[in-house]
Amino acid sequence: MDIYLPIAEVSVNWPTLVILGAVVGFVSGLFGIGGGFLMAPILVFLGIPPTVAVASQASHVVASSTSGVIRYTSQKMVDYRIGGIMALGGVLGALFGVELFRYLRLLGQADLVVALSYLLFLGSIGSLMLYESLTQILRRIRGETPPRKDRRRPMWLYGVPLRMKFPRSGLYISAIPPFGLGVFAGILSAIMGVGGGFILVPAMLYVLRMKASVVVGTSLFQIIITTAITTILQAGRNQTVDIVLSTILLLGGVVGAQMGAKYSGRFRAEELRAVLGLIVLLVGIQMGLELFVRPSDIFLLAPGIAD
After folding, report:
1. If residue 171 lies in a helix (H) or strand (E), which one and from where to where?
2. Are the CB atoms for 212 and 205 separated by under 8 Å?
3. SS3 assignment, position 174
4. How confident is the model at residue 159 (pLDDT cuts 50, 70, 90)?
5. pLDDT digits (tens, 9 = 90+) for 2-47
6. 3-state secondary structure of 5
7. Packing angle, helices 80-107 and 110-117, rounded to 10
8. Are 306 and 11 in contact, with CB atoms under 8 Å apart?
9. Do 12 and 303 touch, CB atoms closer than 8 A?
10. Are 60 and 253 spatial neighbours (Cβ–Cβ below 8 Å)?
């Protein structure tokens, strides 16, 4: 039951892609992330060229994030005001990131930069998340009283201009830091094909000090706009979006995200972070290993493309 992907120029088993979309969508809804960091490496392992995998799966991120936002909105767990500001920054970052991606493709270095980005960002962030969550779990098992968390925001936040009120998040801060986070997420979306939730969620919690109840839904809302713009730009500027691949991934992603959002409240926060941290770390390591493993055919130009 294979289907030919015209842009990727490979044949793949389409039921496998539907299941993959559902599984990654479930992870997206469960953890409040786009899921692109997980989808792109798996597609590469299946033989999809990295440049096509990064650009094509962005539409899956949009669909799964939209499905999750619908559920979180019904629970009033989305701050559209701060999410909109982050999305504006995401659009600017996406414009810059897509042009950078195009330049790297012309140099023939896009695949290398994608692999390095996954290794550096996912490896470091996954390690920090895993360490923090395991420390909290061990404290709970030992019956130790968790240390009092410092809820004060970094002092530099109070000196930044353009302060605004965000009642849903319980904030009165400058709009510049959320905008800057959005720009960074937009660049990552173009280079790595991710929504940036694995970076945005910790930053929104520990830097901006947003209410934990609205962080996940707001992150997903920002991801929708940023990755949608990225997909359009990638298709127009780089011609790396495979519409057949994107459509198949969408079929499972929407359903999976709804299920993930439904079950997210059944687990402890530190347990979810531990699992997510482990997944992020393993994916980063696996992508990094591709840089050091000798290919079976040294004349193979890209995964899935015959010489």
Report:
1. strand 171-174
2. yes
3. strand
4. low
5. 788 877 778 888 888 888 888 887 777 666 666 677 777 788 778 8
6. strand
7. 140
8. no
9. no
10. yes
